[in-house]
Amino acid sequence: MRFWQTLTAVTYKEFITVFRDRTALFFMFFPPLVQIIAFGFALDMDIKHMYTVVLDEDRTKDSRAVVDTFVSTGSFRVVGEARSIEELREYLRAGKARVGIQIPPDFSQRLRRGEGAQVQVLIDGSNSTPALQALNTSLGVGFRYSLLALAQKSGVRKVPLEIRPQVLYNPGLRSQNFFIPGVIGLALQIATVFSTALAVVRERERGTLEQLLISPISRPGLMLGKILPYFTISAAMSALLFWIMRGLFDVLIAGDLWALIAATLVYIFTLLSLGLLISTVAENTMQSFQMTLALILPSVFFSGLIFPRETMPWIFYAIGEVLPATYFIDLVRAIVVRGARWSDYARELSILCGMGAFIFAVCSFRFRRTLG
After folding, report:
1. Minimal CA–CA distance to 257: which of 336, 181, 337, 178?
2. Do the beta carbons of residue 305 and residue 329 sit within 8 Å?
3. What's 104's DSSP letter?
4. Are residues 95 and 7 in the same domain?
5. Contact status, residue 49 vs residue 77, Cβ threshold 8 Å
6. Which has the closest alpha carbon to 177: 296, 45, 363?
7. Residue 135's domain spans which residues?
């Protein structure tokens, strides 16, 4: 009974401290909201309407049909016409276009004689992502155009081999369905670790840390009392982020909602414990900020948020293995996008639980040494 009374008192004190510190509340709410909205609109791998300039030296019905075929894919948008190859290259060099299409003057004649007409596609490779999509789409356009022409000449009604792909879980291949759940994991990390990383450091700088020594509560109980207010606020923040995911970006939750809630709460507890661990190591506010920032970049690049971990060198893959964000991102994508069952994400959830318990235990031990 005495334990719960003291725990309630510590939690109540921490709640008052949090709500009085408007700067801390600002950093808990504003950056995650900006991050999920900005990343949700900016991180889009489905590149469409790339600026395209055309040099049509043939100017026939056939040449216009080729240009229309490129435009109909949705990947290209004609923004200008060049009068020479030098002007076409100048458009690309100046960054006014990403793709240039050159149709030679004998295009329609060679096409009708069956001699093999050629269309040159110049692609700005300074940005590899749109360049790769432009390259693949251009090759697809040429292959489809040639296939239709051969079928028309030979009278073949069906192609020998027909591929019928079916995309599961994300039929529209929307980038938001892939990125937004992962961005929520990163946004929660920023909000939680930053807030609790300042908890013990703030007590030490204000000279109130020694007052905690006289409380009869145990060190784990004291740590728990400091975590609970931030846990409650972070849980509310996660609910707001998932609401934005559903309402603003129209990302449906295909799996069990209660499983998603449980996984998010475990992840929040792990991050809060990690922030408290940083606060027991850092000697001042600046050090706690630096240590927290040091966790953000690995979580962005090595957790699988943007780049697939399977293609990473082993050293970066190993770094991702010790990041809580790695397992939460895999877990939340499994629940939200694929509608996975309990057995499909039990490993990730178990690892998060183990991480949370281990970090909390280390945090309590470090806090005891700090006070000693």
Report:
1. 336
2. yes
3. -
4. no
5. yes
6. 45
7. 50-154
Both tokens of residue 233? 């606020």
The domain boundary, picked from 154, 186, 219, lies at 154
Kind of pairing, strands 120-123 and 99-103? Answer: antiparallel
| N residues, the chain | 372
Q: Please tell me the distance from the alpha carbon of residue 92 to that of residue 304, in angstroms, as a whole number.
A: 33
Report the domain count for the chain.
2
Average confidence (pLDDT) over 270-296 = 84
DSSP, res 310: G
Question: Pick from 168, 144, 94: which is nearest to 124 by CA?
Answer: 94
pTM: 0.80
CB 348 within 8 A of CB 325: no
Same-domain check for residues 251 and 136 = no
Among candidates 198, 254, 255, 206, which has minimal Cα distance to 229?
198
147, 247: one domain: no
Residues 6+ apart with CB under 8 A from 155: none
Same domain? For 30 and 118 the reply is no
Residue pointed to by tokens 């001699």: 115
88 and 229 housed in the same domain: no
State pLDDT tens for residues 17-59: 667 767 667 777 777 888 888 877 777 667 788 999 999 888 8
Q: Do 128 and 13 lie in a common domain?
A: no
